[in-house]
Design brief:
By secondary structure, the chain is mainly beta. It is built from 1 helix and 8 strands; from the N terminus they run αββββββββ. Strands 1-8-7-6 form a 4-stranded antiparallel β-sheet, with no helix packed on it. A 4-stranded antiparallel β-sheet has the order 2-3-4-5, with no helix packed on it. The relative contact order is 0.14.
Length: about 180
Amino acid sequence: MRISPKLAPAAALLAALLPGCTMIPPADPARMQGYAPADAPPPAGYPPQTAPAPYTPAQTYTPPYAPPPAPSELPPAAPLTYAAIGQTVTVSGPRITPLAVLEDSRCPMNARCVWAGQVRLRVRIDSGRGGEVEMTSGKPVSVADGALELVEVRPDKAAGGQNNGTVAQSAYRFGFRFSGGY
């Protein structure tokens, strides 16, 4: 970009205000090696310019268009299995027992939040790897030959009121889904 002589003082000031920046003056085409004006004839021994050959596309194969499957054609998602704290349920194979809520930072349903929040839960898994693990809502955990996910937590939190947005441990219901197990 060429800087007009009127703007040169402003460009110098800008360069001084922005440390680490270097102002590079525009190139002078007359000083460039091998420069020739566009209307100058080509040098001796240089092949004359000819028009490029017209473009001919190569023969290509375009497969027929296949629309994406309709929602009714997609495989149905496995149903959720719900459990309360201390209740053991079978989720398409593994047996799960929610033990304790470690964190419930979900945004209350009657509030506006920047982050939706999450629920962290300690569970006992009686299949595959077994033992106690920590689960976070929306993040699958590898179990045996599949993945176990905490998909839904009930009831929703509500700001204000007597409980001030908290949920009693006995009121929680956790919706689990197991995928895989082929």
